[in-house]
Amino acid sequence: MSALNLYHDPDCIFCKIIAKKIPSRVVYEDEEIFAFHDINPWAPVHFLLIPKMHLSSMAQVGTEHGALLGRMMALVPKLALEQGCNPYPEGGYRLVSNTGREGGQEVQHLHFHVMGGPRPWLRG
Ligand code: AMP
Ligand code: ZN
Fold first, then answer.
1. Ligand 1 pocket test: which of 38, 109, 123 has the largest number of ligand atoms within 8 Å of its C-beta?
2. Which residue among 106, 108, 111 is best mutated to probe the pocket of ligand 1, counting the most ligand atoms within 8 A of its Cβ?
3. What are the φ and ψ backbone dihedral angles of 73, each rounded to 5 degrees?
4. Is 46 a catalytic residue?
5. Which pLDDT does position 5 carry in this prediction?
6. Which pLDDT score, from 0 to 100, does residue 2 have?
7. Full DSSP string of 70-97
8. Would 102 be classed as within a structural domain?
9. pLDDT at residue 114 above 60?
10. CATH number of the domain enclosing 32
11. In the chain, what percentage of residues exceed pLDDT 70?
12. Which domain holds residue 39?
């Protein structure tokens, strides 16, 4: 149990990745936030940014999560450049959070896709 007493879902694949029960290629980690390379990348750079706390999707986010989400968003520019995205405006990246079935969400732990690098991409 973390000092922050974060809720983990024992059946969630991303909670298992955070707990290092499933290996991943780590991009970033702090007490509240984890980032790792997508196993099935759409673009030359494709990593996932997730809260360590298990939230199923953006649909569960409320104003009480504002500070956490703010910290996550503020990390994106730095991590994107570190991982090889080219500088704005010629470069840039795509930031996506699929939410629910109609939003195309497959893993039910809130995550932000960060995709970038030279085109063409495999998808997207
Ligand atoms: P979404 O459709 O937004 O729920 O996307 C889930 C993403 O998680 C997909 O892009 C998958 O490739 C990725 N993914 C699933 N399992 C793993 C894993 N074990 N390690 C890294 N990425 C994964
Ligand atoms: Zn989870």
1. 38
2. 106
3. -65, -35
4. no
5. 65
6. 45
7. HHHHHHHHHHHHHTTPPPTTTS-EEEE-
8. yes
9. yes
10. 3.30.428.10
11. 96
12. 3-116
Mean pLDDT, the chain, rounded, equals 96
**What is the per-residue pLDDT across 52-103, written as a single tens digit (0 to 9) for each?**
999 999 999 999 999 999 999 999 999 999 999 999 999 999 999 999 999 9
Can you read off the two tokens belonging to residue 55? 């939230």
Which pair of tokens denotes residue 68?
Answer: 């956490």
Measured distance CA(41)–CA(79) in Å, rounded: 16
Collapsed DSSP state (helix, strand, coil) of residue 13:
helix
Residue 123 in any domain: the answer is no
Predicted TM-score (pTM) above 0.85: yes
Q: Give the number of domains in the chain.
A: 1
Strands 33-37 and 45-51: antiparallel
pLDDT recorded at residue 124? 86
3-class SS of residue 21: coil
Confirm whether 122 is domain-assigned: no
What pLDDT shows up at residue 22?
97
Cβ pair 62, 47 in contact under 8 A: no
Sheet holding 33-37, edge to edge: 26-29, 33-37, 45-51, 112-116, 93-96
